[in-house]
Amino acid sequence: MAKKRIRIIMDIAMTVLLPMLMAYSLIGEKFHEIIGTLMFALFILHHVLNRKWYGAIFKGKYNTRRTFLTALDAFLIVFMIEQPVGGMLMSKHLYTFIQIQGISAAVREIHLCLAYWGFVILCIHAGTHLTASLKSLKEKKRIVFYFLTVIGTAVSIYGIHAFNKRQIPDYMLRKTVFAFFDYSEPRILFFLDYLAIMILFISVGCVAVMGLACLDRKITMRKGGEAK
To answer: Is the distance from CB of 112 to CB of 179 less than 8 angstroms?
Structure first.
């Protein structure tokens, strides 16, 4: 029970820290480095608590759902290691003692691009872990489930607009290699947009896992029918 509570607290903390990381210049470079360090520490703790996952990678059979989840986790691990390393190499405050001359420009471009990929992957990853809770909610409180579904859908639709408005596709495809922020814009609008984008990709994660689980059931039923 204690481990479960720790995981919940960690998930909440990482969810709060994620949009703050994306704010970068809006919160100040030093604060950005501090938050990045906290995020990396939470990532390490998360994997310590879930270390059994590594031992189970080569055990059991892989269906489409498990393959998708394992690939997603693998990409997430690469991102969560590369990002803090890149951040340390560019550090102007906390890690200036490990800087390497002549690589900052290249590291900055990679760091910026992967920051947005990581943001999307982290949100999808979070969504994949909500399916059990949503299923339980649907069984116990159907009205609440459908209310949240409607709200989540509406916010996700706006999230598509915010995703393009904030030029995230351009950052992900390296069409834009400098982060641009409107300093005259109220901070709350920036965070609301990123919250909507988070909900969009959390929803994508939920729907993807549910869809793949359904596909796996159909494949299993088909194989059972063929075996007969």
So the answer is: yes
